[in-house]
């Protein structure tokens, strides 16, 4: 059995990080709606024809040659339009930034999944040199968004004084210039020959790297083609990414001369995210085999609340946290907000998060169940770390799914703490952690951000992989309970006990949230259906629901010493009583008018 060309490419890049350069053409930006340079030239020729009151030419290049006796040059066309230097640059802005009048091209150009994946490859050190014929700035935007430090050269002077690649984190070389600068090269005539400094740069760097070529036809850019064919043999293999069924005839000649491997793919947005994921998977496979979950759990139990073992437990938890944090960062890099509008893509992302966090659920539930002395401090640190994943502002409504992993962890901690009667841990996880709220640009109590109403908005309810089970507003809770049940069953004991503890945790979360932030309506969960104790006035006798019995035995009549001594309601029984009354009155109002609950998108705000 042989490896596929894509697998060969992933292994080559993973084995030789920093030894491959990307050569990117206009195809890399096609899905962002940016036209090729030649498309821009043809559009400008049509504008010149319109000025001469001619019919729109079927062959703009031939019309221009017949009309002016010369092949079209970008600079000459701009000269015909009699534009100033600044006006000439502004001609390109609508094409690149999406402000043109052509409805077929989307506005507000954004980096594509390919750009994002390339930035991720660079952030991990796999790619240090990117050579591109594109004049847009989508690649630079993606690199900045990924916090990659890079050097940029886009003019003859820049190529003359370019830093050596080994002195940069990432070097971006724009062979055709930048659309906001003078000297942009767009026409075939302008691409016959590069300035001497650009040629010298290519002659120096091309032989040093293996090449991944994508989105470049090899047809019009004669200067670049000659530079590639004229470079000596490379130390590393090269790969040519092509649309099916095969590279074009001009490209095939270059592929043959370079001895490159052809990688057939439907587009850059398919191949680069896959390449990034594959290189990361290969990196993980080279690391030592991770300790089994059961061994980690046994270590935690052995070290639980032993002062002499606290350093080892802290080290163990820190290692698990950082491993998960890195995996979630890698996973989140290539989230495509546009695709998240589709149910299948949304569910795929949800399930991927659940798979990544499964191991940590076992870890945190064990700490919460056994370690009341060290547990609160260690778990708070973990929640703050995993909850600090960056928000992903992408078009299409990504919701707040970057907090879904930490939401699962908080629920697991809360359920296990209730099962083990670790009330200090329960108080700590609900009341202590703070997270950075990118929307409000401030530190905010985790309780206000880590709840199902904040993570899933109303548009997400029907996308969850449940079908149409129960009321729509209950589906996030039902789904979370279903996901966690097999993972924490060792502490909850039975499915029925799991459901009871899940409802109790959500009830306490809702109660404390309502007391702390006084929203118009409380956070809701399946417990709201147990309405026998949510009435105005005194609590009735003979409560039969499991959560009703918890309410009666643990919270009412001054028998909540464990919760109060742990710090809830500042240890004040009167304050707790007032909070209980306000909370059950609010939910009684919802039960009396269900439209309040089902229509309130963010139940607690």
The number of helical elements comes to: 26
Helix amount: 40-55%
Radius of gyration: 30 Å
Assess the beta-strand content as a share of residues.
5-15%
Principal-axis shape: elongated
Main β sheet profile: 7 strands, parallel
Q: From the helix content, strand content and strand pairing, which structural class follows?
A: alpha/beta
Give the integer mean of the pLDDT values: 79
Q: What is the straight-line distance between the termini?
A: 58 Å
> For the largest beta sheet, what order do the strands appear in spatially?
3-4-2-1-5-6-7
Count the beta strands. 9
User: Which parts are unreliable, with pLDDT below 50 for 5 consecutive residues or more?
Assistant: 100-107, 393-398, 534-538, 598-605
Report on this structure:
- By secondary structure, the chain is an alpha/beta fold.
- The protein has helices spanning 5-15, 37-51, 60-68, 74-80, 85-97, 113-123, 138-145, 156-160, 196-205, 222-230, 249-258, 268-286, 293-303, 310-333, 343-370, 375-386, 404-419, 423-431, 446-449, 452-455, 475-492, 495-517, 546-555, 561-566, 573-592, 594-599; strands spanning 20-24, 127-132, 151-153, 171-174, 210-214, 239-242, 261-264, 434-437, 442-445.
- The protein is elongated and about 95 Å long.
In a few lines, what is going on in this structure?
This protein has 26 helices and nine strands. By secondary structure, it is an alpha/beta fold.
Q: Topology, please?
A:
Layout: H1 5-15, E1 20-24, H2 37-51, H3 60-68, H4 74-80, H5 85-97, H6 113-123, E2 127-132, H7 138-145, E3 151-153, H8 156-160, E4 171-174, H9 196-205, E5 210-214, H10 222-230, E6 239-242, H11 249-258, E7 261-264, H12 268-286, H13 293-303, H14 310-333, H15 343-370, H16 375-386, H17 404-419, H18 423-431, E8 434-437, E9 442-445, H19 446-449, H20 452-455, H21 475-492, H22 495-517, H23 546-555, H24 561-566, H25 573-592, H26 594-599
Parallel strand pairs: 1-2, 1-5, 2-4, 3-4, 5-6, 6-7
Antiparallel strand pairs: 8-9
């Amino acid at each position: 059995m042989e490896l596929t060309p894509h697998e060969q490419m992933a292994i080559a890049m993973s084995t030789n990080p920093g030894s491959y350069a990307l050569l990117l053409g206009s195809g890399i930006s096609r899905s962002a709606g940016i036209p090729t340079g030649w498309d821009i030239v043809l559009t400008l020729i049509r504008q010149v024809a319109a000025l001469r009151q001619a019919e729109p030419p079927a062959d703009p290049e031939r019309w221009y040659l017949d009309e002016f006796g010369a092949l079209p040059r970008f600079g000459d066309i701009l000269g015909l339009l009699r534009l100033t230097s600044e006006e000439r640059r502004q001609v390109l802005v609508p094409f690149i930034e999406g402000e043109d009048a052509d409805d077929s091209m989307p506005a507000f150009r954004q980096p594509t999944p390919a750009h994002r994946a390339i930035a991720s490859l660079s952030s991990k050190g796999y790619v240090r040199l990117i050579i591109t014929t594109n004049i847009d700035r989508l690649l630079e935007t993606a690199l900045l968004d990924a916090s990659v430090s890079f050097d940029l050269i886009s003019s003859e002077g820049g190529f003359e004084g370019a830093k050596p690649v080994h002195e940069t984190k990432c070097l971006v070389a724009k062979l055709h210039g930048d659309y906001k600068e003078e000297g942009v090269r767009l026409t075939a005539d302008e691409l016959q020959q590069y300035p001497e400094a650009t040629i010298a740069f290519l002659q120096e760097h091309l032989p040093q790297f293996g090449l991944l070529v994508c989105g470049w036809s090899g047809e019009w850019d004669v200067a670049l083609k000659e530079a590639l064919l004229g470079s000596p043999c490379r130390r590393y293999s090269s790969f040519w990414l092509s649309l099916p069924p095969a590279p074009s005839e001009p490209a095939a000649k270059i592929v043959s001369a370079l001895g490159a491997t052809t990688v057939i793919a439907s587009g850059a947005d398919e191949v680069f995210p896959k390449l990034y994921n594959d290189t990361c998977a290969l990196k993980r496979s080279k690391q030592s085999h991770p300790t089994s979950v059961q061994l980690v759990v046994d270590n935690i139990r052995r070290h639980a609340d032993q002062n002499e073992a606290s350093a080892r437990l802290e080290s163990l938890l820190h290692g698990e946290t950082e491993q998960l944090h890195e995996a979630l960062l890698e996973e989140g890099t290539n989230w495509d907000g546009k695709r998240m509008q589709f149910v299948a893509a949304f569910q795929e992302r949800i399930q991927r998060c659940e798979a990544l966090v499964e191991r940590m659920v076992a870890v945190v539930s064990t700490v919460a169940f056994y370690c009341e002395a060290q547990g609160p401090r260690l778990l708070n640190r973990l929640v703050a770390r995993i909850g600090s994943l960056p928000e992903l502002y992408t078009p299409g409504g990504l919701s707040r799914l970057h907090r879904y992993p930490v939401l699962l962890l908080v629920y697991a901690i809360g359920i296990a703490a209730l099962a083990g009667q670790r009330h200090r841990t329960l108080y700590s996880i609900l009341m202590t952690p703070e997270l950075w709220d990118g929307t409000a640009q401030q530190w905010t109590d985790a309780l206000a951000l880590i709840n199902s109403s904040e993570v899933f908005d109303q548009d997400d309810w029907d996308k969850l992989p449940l079908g149409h089970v129960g009321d729509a507003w209950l589906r996030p809770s039902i789904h979370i309970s279903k996901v966690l049940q097999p993972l924490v069953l060792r502490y909850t004991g039975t499915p029925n006990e799991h459901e009871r503890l899940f409802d109790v945790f959500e009830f306490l979360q809702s109660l404390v949230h309502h007391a702390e932030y006084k929203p118009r309506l409380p956070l809701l969960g399946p417990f709201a259906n147990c309405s026998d104790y949510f009435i105005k006035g005194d609590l009735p006798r003979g409560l039969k629901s499991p959560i009703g019995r918890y309410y009666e035995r643990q919270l009412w009549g001054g028998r909540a010493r464990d919760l109060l001594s742990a710090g809830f309601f500042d240890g004040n029984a009167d304050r707790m009583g007032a909070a209980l009354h306000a909370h059950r009155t609010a939910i009684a109002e919802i039960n009396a008018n269900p439209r309040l609950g089902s229509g309130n998108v963010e139940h607690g705000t």
